[in-house]
Design a protein that fits this description.
single chain; alpha/beta; eight-stranded mixed β-sheet; seven-stranded parallel β-sheet; elongated
Length: about 1100
């Protein structure tokens, strides 16, 4: 049906109507009355206006702004041409900056300015009427009843979307009138308004204004390659350029003002606002406790002002052993309103009102790597705490979320899963704020690759593949949420180095690890080999008692079978570790194993087999991950407690047989070992202590620190060394650490304020001193045994490599058996694999364990491979220096619009273009070559090309510049679309556990007796599982589902059990309207073409 109305739907657009009118009518006068003018609209219709001699546009919206401005300052509105001109220029400039990036548009912009200059087009504004009408008048010559032209009226402003010239145009409602009386009436009304209006772009003003308008947009031809280089640095580094020493003003006495700490405070505060949490992972000894405290103070003051008197509450979670250190720093810096929670005391959250999870605004977790396993109870409790919102409601009705700081110099230990689990303390697995939203899917791929790698024997292959795995993790994930600087970074950056030198702060170099080999004589080597054969043959069923019960008898133990299946492997590992530690420790472990076997066999003979019920509450992961294997071993070996009593027939038939097999293997092995008197490992230690390790310049402080994982070994060394004439020995373990803390400070802490003493020159200790203590009066570390947990090695060295050290170099000595033994236990290869992974992911500036390791340091702003580290930081410092020395020039470049571009000579990149594209989540750098091939670049690769001398002149852009920028933009959009598609495809990437839990929740939600609150809680639980918000939630739901099926619970019991589980999680306050997957439209930031 033919109609005079058009709505911009399909081909029924105002743009098409314009095209038809100008094609079939010889228009002499084109008048437009619009609310506002967009250059984009004029660019689109200009081709129709080439033969129209007279064009007038009357606008109204800018006048509204002027009137409002004058009313606000209490003045009568008066004609103010400059004000109106500024408003229009602002809109035109914005329109130019946001127009399609192509040659046609740019030519249209210049023609528009030319038309105004020649008075072909006149633009005016009415000074007293709020004009919101939209009228377009097309008058032919002559204009009469027989040649009336037409008038269009409706809702469309003169913009590309208003006239329907773009696919995403507005829905409008317009009508065309061709009756002479209608056109004549509209023409007279327009004429009346025009005569009352002010010409806001008269030709003489345009001539003065045009250059300024052009120069304030990307169309300026005045920018030089040198200026573009600094514009790139400004856009890339953003607020990081503003070094803010005020972040660490008003320091307490004896604390030094360090520039690198001020940078970390500002960067950390920014990350809290953007991602709700971050890793503070500067290497050990660089003052992370101080940095975290300063960030907490800054956040406290920020929220106090932003939320008008809000008093933040901070919770520090850390090992009890370093509580005093934290309390001292917090007191010294005067952080208000904080509490301390020992990292094994999460029950306080439910028992003590002051520890109400909702009451905390900031959580600081020290030694955060202890929470790397998502199967540990403590991890689940910490994740629930971190994701419980605060009790502060914002103006929009949403609830303020907690901020999280995870402190650890070594967040990676065993696999990529370590980092993933820690990130999930403040991010949701399938709905993160990072560039990769679905980090669950991303990390699962990397974890698979890493696990496959653990079977590789070739160290070079390990290095290369680890580099690939962690290179991706570093670039895509870590760099966005981690602050990490090594000592190398701090000493290589001029600003930091000068600041450290001025305060006489030394960071010693860590020398390559020294291998100390102890040689086994032939008989001992034969026993060594035999021992490993036997260790591999043992059944370890003594630690699988519950698993070996008949199904009926096992029912009462609500423990996952997998937990007890792992016990055998744990005890096997403990045996090997004890042998690596010392022969004395190994003998004791063999004796304990043999005693337990003997006891259990006797219980079978007596037909009364005891199983200690306390095992039901043991969290195996907690003990293993916190390096408390000795405690675990004691618990497992403790059969004094009366427990559940079983008969032999309650066990699998071959259980007793396997117990006896193990006994028959262990008994003769123990008999052989108890007769071994020689100790080649100790012999080489005493030789080194007497002849090498106390000599200068090797030992600058006259003190040595010896670490071992086993207390049996440290006690053994204390006894042996005293017998061999070494009397000044301090032996520290968990039992006496607190009691002897003051002695440690006076003897080994270089930063101790009081009088230092020299009553001890050897410190022997377990892992109890591997964290949170200063031992840097010594520069010699002896690793008498090597921890399975390689991160411990790094932590150990960090005790002596700290701010305040006076040594030039740290020396590390690692003990190894001869190569044939290494082939049996594969200890060196295991530690090598773990440490190399740590280096690749985070960077560490010393070789800890093996000289084949590649040293890696990744700086504070680094997003890619190691060799870029210093360069990226140096570019930031270059920008800071430029700003400092050229404040006015810096501001000029800062205020230049985006889309700046230059042409330059570069024969290797001839006829190519590099573009910097950005969205809210990510940056993209692309080289498009002359054949239209796209080559992604890193920031450092790009900035090296962009770097220019001050006197270099720009040349014209080549003819393919615009099309190449468009190709880069499309490549960025394609990658962005793929990421969003992947993120939105959550249902396809849900694991089997998630799917099972969701299916069970769906089933439960159909129960007709549920009230609205209960239904809502189940829906929120489903959202949490889809987002991967709480890792343990789906596991608990699935265990309940299996229990329901096994015990055939009634539906009411099933629902009650489910609701009891859901009650443990903070579901009610989840902001289900929050959408953090949204992407902003990509911006073209900067481009450079080459001839």
């Amino acid at each position: 049906m033919a109609t005079k109305f058009f709505t911009n739907q399909g081909d029924n657009t105002l743009y098409k109507k314009f095209e038809g009118i100008f094609k079939y009518t010889k228009v002499n006068d084109f008048d437009a009355l619009v609310g506002y003018l967009r250059a984009s609209g004029y660019f689109k219709i200009r081709k129709f206006l080439k033969k129209v001699p007279k064009i007038r546009i009357l606008v109204g919206i800018n006048v509204d702004k002027a009137i409002k401005h004058y009313h606000q300052i209490g003045l009568e509105f008066a004609t103010n041409e400059q004000k109106i001109l500024e408003e229009l220029n602002k809109d035109l400039k914005s329109d130019i900056q946001n127009s399609p990036y192509n040659k046609e548009t740019e030519e249209g912009i210049l023609e528009f300015i030319k038309d105004i200059s020649s008075k072909k087009i006149e633009i005016a504004a009415h000074p007293s009427k709020n004009i919101h009408a939209k009228i377009y008048i097309f008058k032919p010559k002559p204009f009469n009843k027989h040649n009336s032209g037409s008038v269009i009226t409706g809702s469309s402003n003169l913009s590309a979307t208003g006239i329907g010239a773009l696919p995403e145009s507005n829905y409008e409602f317009n009508v065309e009138l061709r009756d002479y009386d209608d056109v004549n009436y509209a023409s007279k009304e327009f004429e009346k308004l025009w005569n009352e209006s002010i010409e806001i772009l008269p030709a003489e003003v345009v001539k003065e204004n045009i250059k300024k308008l052009i120069n304030e947009t990307y169309l300026s031809d005045s920018i030089t390659p040198y200026e573009l280089y600094y514009k790139m640095l400004i856009e890339y580094f953003g607020s990081s350029v503003d070094f803010d020493p005020s972040s660490i003003n008003d320091l307490p006495p004896n604390y030094k003002k360090l520039d690198y700490q001020a940078d970390a405070v500002n960067e950390g505060f920014s990350l809290l606002q953007k991602h709700r949490g971050f890793f503070l992972s500067d290497v050990v000894g660089t003052g992370k406790t101080i940095i975290a405290t300063l960030i907490a103070k800054k956040l406290f003051n920020y929220d106090l002002h932003k939320y008008e008197g809000k008093i933040n509450k901070t919770l520090i979670i850390a090992p009890q052993t370093i509580r005093d250190d934290w309390e001292k720093v917090l007191k010294d810096f005067g952080l208000p309103n904080y509490l301390f929670l020992p990292n094994r005391s999460f029950h306080w959250l439910y028992e003590k009102p002051a520890y109400d999870p909702k009451s905390f605004d900031l959580i600081i977790v020290d030694e955060a790597h202890k929470f790397r396993s998502n199967t540990a109870d403590s991890y689940n409790e910490l994740q629930k705490l971190c994701k419980t919102p605060t009790n502060f409601k914002l103006d929009d009705g949403s609830i303020l979320e907690k901020k999280i700081i995870l402190i650890s110099a070594s967040p990676l230990n065993n696999s990529p899963e370590d980092i993933k689990n820690q990130i999930l303390l403040f991010q949701d697995g399938k709905n993160s704020t990072l560039e990769i939203s679905n980090i669950d899917y991303y990390f699962n791929q990397k974890i698979k690759q890493y696990k496959a790698l653990s079977k590789e024997q070739d160290k070079q292959v390990i290095k290369e593949q680890v580099k690939d795995i962690y290179g991706s993790i570093r670039e895509k994930i870590i760099s966005q949420i981690m602050i990490r600087r090594t000592r190398t970074d701090l000493m290589n950056i001029e600003q930091y180095k000068k600041n450290l030198d001025d305060q006489k702060i030394i960071f010693p170099k860590v020398g390559k690890p020294n291998k100390v080999f102890y040689i086994l004589e032939e008989n001992l080597e034969e026993l060594y080999d035999k021992t490993f054969i036997i260790i591999s043959k043992l059944n370890y069923v003594i630690y699988d008692e519950i698993k070996n019960l008949n199904p009926e008898a096992r029912k009462k133990y609500e423990i996952p079978e997998v937990a007890y299946s792992a016990l055998a492997d744990i005890m096997k590992t403990l045996l090997v570790k004890r042998l690596d530690s010392s022969f004395e420790a190994f003998k004791q472990s063999l004796y304990n194993f043999l005693t337990k076997l003997k006891s259990k066999i006797k219980q079978f003979e007596n037909k009364k087999i005891f199983i200690v019920p306390g095992l039901k509450s043991i969290d195996i992961s907690e003990y293993v991950l916190e390096d408390r294997e000795e405690e675990l071993e004691k618990i497992l070996l403790n059969d004094d407690s009366k427990g559940d009593i079983y008969k032999p027939e309650d066990f699998n038939k071959d259980f007793l047989k396997k117990l006896k097999q193990d006994y028959d293997l262990i008994e003769p092995l123990y008999d052989q070992w108890k007769d071994v008197k020689e100790d080649p490992k100790y012999d080489i230690l005493i030789n080194n202590l007497k002849n090498n390790l106390f000599k200068k310049p090797l030992n600058s402080g006259g003190k040595v620190v010896i670490f071992s994982e086993a207390k049996v070994t440290t006690d053994y060394l204390l006894d042996k060394l005293k017998k061999d004439g070494f009397k000044k020995i301090l032996n520290i373990d968990a039992s006496n650490r607190h009691k002897l803390k003051s002695k440690l400070q006076t003897e080994f802490d270089e930063n101790f304020d009081g009088e230092k003493e020299n009553n001890y020159n050897i410190l022997i200790t377990t892992e109890v001193l591997a964290e949170g203590i200063n031992l840097h009066r010594s520069n010699i570390i002896i690793n008498y045994d090597t921890p399975w947990n390689s991160t411990r090695l790094i932590q150990r060295i960090g005790r002596v490599n700290r701010i305040g050290s006076k040594a030039d170099k740290i020396h590390v000595f690692n003990f190894f058996p001869t190569s044939n033994v290494e082939g049996d236990i594969k200890l060196e290869q295991k530690a090598f694999l773990k440490l190399q992974s740590f280096h690749e992911a985070l960077g560490e500036d010393s070789q800890i364990y093996h000289e084949a390791e590649e040293t890696k340091t990744f700086g504070i702003f680094d997003k890619d491979i190691e060799e870029e580290k210093n360069e990226k930081l140096s570019f930031l410092m270059d920008l800071r220096e430029f700003k400092k020395n050229n404040e006015i020039y810096y501001r000029k470049i800062l205020n230049m619009s985006k889309r700046q571009r230059v042409g330059r000579k570069n024969s290797s990149l001839k006829n190519g273009t590099i573009s910097f594209i950005r969205s809210e989540r990510r940056n993209g750098f692309y080289l498009v070559d002359k054949d239209k091939n796209v080559h992604p670049k890193t920031f450092v690769e790009t900035i090296k090309i962009f770097k220019a001398k001050k006197d270099e002149k720009a040349i014209h852009l080549h003819k393919n510049h615009h099309s190449q920028v468009d190709i880069a933009l499309k490549e960025f959009q394609k990658e962005q679309y793929e990421k969003i598609s992947e993120n939105q495809g959550v249902s396809t990437t849900l694991g089997p556990q998630s799917k099972q839990a969701l299916a069970f929740l769906d089933l439960c939600s159909r129960a007709d007796f549920l009230n609205p609150v209960e239904k809502e809680k189940i829906q929120l639980a489903k959202k949490c599982i889809r987002d991967s918000r709480f890792i343990e939630l789906q596991r608990e739901i699935n265990r309940h589902k299996n229990l329901t099926k096994k015990t055939k619970l009634k539906i009411t019991q099933t629902i009650d059990g489910l609701l009891k589980i859901l009650k443990k999680y903070p579901l009610e306050d989840i902001n289900i309207t929050k959408n953090i997957n949204s992407e902003t439209i990509p911006e073209i930031i900067i481009s450079e073409s080459y001839n």
